[in-house]
Amino acid sequence: MSTGELTMHASRTARWARPLAALVIAAALLATPYYFAPFRVFQLTMVLLYAVVLAGLNLLVGYGGQISLGHGAFFAVGAYTAAVMLDRFTIGHLATLPVAAAGCFLLGLGFGVPALRLRGLYLALVTLAFAVFLPPLLKRFEHVTGGSMGLTVPKPQPPSWTGLAEDQWLYFLTLTVAAVTLLVVRNLLRSRVGRALLAIRENESAAEVMGVRLSFHKALAFAWSAMFAGVAGCLYTWVIGFVSPDSFSINLSITLLAGLVVGGLASVYGPLLGAAFVMYVPNLAQDISPAAPGVVFGLLIIVVMYLAPTGLAGLAARARQGVRRCVEHLRDTRRRPEPASPVEQTGPPQPEPQPLTAPPTIGKG
């Protein structure tokens, strides 16, 4: 095969590899609830749910360069918004989703004001304070939030024409919202807003010189991130059917941030990998050591970060680059001409040179 044919074949393969992989993943996600037990379907639904909140957190931390330890609070606001609406009013579940998203967007926009003057650890401390005082605040308004007892609300039931069970219906609802969320985040990062956030993360002074409005984009990053956390909280109410202040402690915010770092900051697949880590690793730690699951969970985080400093997504990217380099090396080896044989290098055998002899001497006389 010639070099041109190899190049055309490689470009054709690269062009079709990504759409084919996306098609296979989509088919696997759609077929999943039909081949797993209800509990496994519930776990996968929670993974998709956490992927939504981590996608918003990645927008703020991974691409915006701002640290937040209070996203569990935005998650709780979205969950309680949906729960109170379902408990107090006779409305459908789908009507709670835009209300939770809009409410958390406005809350994040207002909360983004401290981000205009704070950064780094100081900003993290402010967001941490928000996550600390929200659960006691929810307990104070018992007539609305149910206090320490929480609220129990009905789960969305599948339409009869679908023929789906409750867990399957919840899975497909969460999958749809997660797919839309990831698509919105992807398009947002490719827009002017995403480029401005990257510029702010790299160098605020240089970004301001280039005409980027720091205050506007910082507040907007908080608003978008809080909105996705509120959407995930609304899904949490649908899936669990129960909310209480103890479900949204400070541990939730820390676990979400740890899951994002483990999954991979500023990565498209980081939220998905981090969501799987948040869902399955605590259960694994509980199985290993029921007496001290927190210790096992912390050790697992240390091990993962030691083996993959850039997160699981970075580890997968390095593996993919290694495979690509191997393929390119094999391709170059095929293109390289074979070494010439010894006969071709030296040519036909030459006759051995004859030794020089002195001319015959002619005697006198």
Automatic annotation (TrEMBL):
Q: Where in the cell is it found?
A: Cell membrane
CDD domains from the UniProt entry: TM_PBP1_LivM_like
| Main location, first listed in the record | membrane
Ranges for the region named Disordered are 330-365
Keywords in alphabetical order = Cell membrane, Membrane, Transmembrane, Transmembrane helix
Asked if Transcription is a keyword of the record, the answer is no
Q: Which residues cross the membrane?
A: 20-36, 42-61, 68-86, 92-113, 120-138, 169-189, 219-240, 252-282, 294-317
Membrane association type: Multi-pass membrane protein
The Pro residues compositionally biased stretches are: 348-358
PANTHER family annotated for this entry?
A: HIGH-AFFINITY BRANCHED-CHAIN AMINO ACID TRANSPORT SYSTEM PERMEASE, HIGH-AFFINITY BRANCHED-CHAIN AMINO ACID TRANSPORT SYSTEM PERMEASE PROTEIN LIVM
What is the recorded name of this protein?
Answer: Branched-chain amino acid ABC transporter permease
Instruction: Please tell me the species this chain comes from.
Output: Streptomyces xantholiticus
